[in-house]
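Hello K.,

You asked for the raw outputs rather than the summary table, so here they are, unedited. I folded two proteins back to back in the same session to keep the settings identical. This is the first:
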Amino acid sequence: MDFLAYVFTGLLLTAIGSLFLASVGKTLELWRVLPERTVLVYTFFGKVIGKVEEPGLFLPIFHFGPKALLFPLFGKAYSVSTQLQQSYLRNQLVNSEEGAPMGVGVWFEMFVNDPEAFLFRNSSPLGSLNANVATAVVKQLSNLKLDVLLEDRDALSRKVREEVSPTSSQWGFALGSTYIRKVAFRDQGMIAEIQRKVVNRLRQVTAAMKQAGDNTVAIIHSEADKQASQRLGQAQAVRPEVVGRSLAEIQREPEVAQALFRLLEINATLKAPGKVILTETTAGLILNS
């Protein structure tokens, strides 16, 4: 029974001692755990004495010596993230050469490559970088032709990056990709006018296409009518010759010719608009003939 009491007491004291040592070590900053893409900048009496970039467990006393024990009282450790960051500035106002107010959206990447400059050269480095990018956009894109603003975004993006990079490096930033993602009209009246002109132009193009189709169909019909008239004229020109040749062949047989002409005469008489009255005498004559 005494053994179990000793074991329980030992475990309790060990836990209390571990918590006490962890609290003391955290207060005195005897060790630090450094995440990935993070830099610790140490200052002592307001002066930068070094920085740590290697991730993992870090013991300041091995790196800075016994004075590391005084960091909680007279020093400070600044944690700076060096991860890639992205920002997007919307509706930066520029005017084209034609006087049209345009809204420009620019996207850019940046990361901290100089933690000391990031911490101590500018009180708000990120805000200053955004303002510098906005200024560069207005400077590089103002008074350009409207078609250049709408089409040459790659070249304009490179100009903005070249304008911003020297200044951003002074504040500890390295500027990455920069791209003008959006160029839009800000004047609603101008937008409505452009829409109206586009609609009118589409109507004109549609009407022109329809007229061209109608003209093509008319030409086809005219050509067909012309060829049909030519064929009919040729047929009418040949018809008397064909009929005359046929009648000449029939005249070689007098009986056949007489019967044919008699039949044609009777057919013409029946088709006449007048009335034909057949009596016994005329019917007999017709039948006998």
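The second followed immediately with the same parameters:
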Amino acid sequence: TSGTTGDPKGVVYHHRGAYLTALGNVLTGDMGRHPVYLWTLPMFHCNGWCFPWSISVNAGTHVCLRQVRAGHIYELMAEHGVTHLCGAPIVMSTLLNATESEKKPLTRTARFFTAAAPPPQAVLAGMKAAGFEVTHLYGLTETYGPAAVNEWHDDWDSLDSGAQAQMKARQGVRYLVLENLDVIDPDSMQPVPRDGATMGEVMFRGNVVMKGYLKNKSASEKAFHGGWFHSGDLGVRHPDGYIQLKDRSKDIIISGGENISSIEVEDALFRHPKVRAAAVVAAPDDKWGETPCAFVELKDGEQATAQELIEWTRQHLAHFKCPRHVVFCELPKT
């Protein structure tokens, strides 16, 4: 794993962590007997989040595919009656942007587990409308994949679609097999207030955390400073105990002394009806130090100007958070 640092490291697992995460997936996914799982998640992504063992121990069916293509996914889901699948938000976008000829009627509701970057609210709302039940997970290679889950509350069903999507974007609470999960000030090593606003670093502790980095004592000691595993992710904790990521510590844009979350800016851009995908990075600025720069991919057949998208973000964000530059291009995807 290298995360956003570009410094590759070997993560040392142990059998206890792997089997606990496998069982945690079964409990969290409410899989029941004989699930049918579609492999839109690569098995080489930290052992497929331990789902190879989760499905097998539950006498389930593994449905494999060579490439993540919308048409083929819909075909396999309709043919095999898929009950569960996992993937990054880009997989959801692929499904939502499928042509009408590619889409197939599904015989049952499929539970979609997503992790990586918080899904844009527009994507979550679109998946719900398309008949998928999305559950947001969170974890890292160092935690065997998912170690936190956004457990849904029944009373949230009464919220409007926008408010529901906001709730879905949270990373949630710890897996049952994880001892502890918290948002902590990395300097004082004290938990931040549960006010949904004070940012700290998300940290893990328990049996589903790696042993350390292979032959890298200094990196291991740094990662476990203070007795917690430091994720490098910045987030807040809400009054109900749910955590929500705001950014990677490396991805925060510091403009004129103000911290800007690239995720927050991307989410505003994703809500524009013409935008298919967006990525926001820091651009050097002589006056402000850094300012947001947005790389945007439009939906097929759509046209937009940079000023149009900047004005859109100004309707949804504090003005200092809005991108100063917009580059239109096809975004690379993995």
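The CA atoms of residues 83 and 110 lie 5 Å apart.

Happy to rerun anything if the numbers look odd on your end.

Regards,
P.
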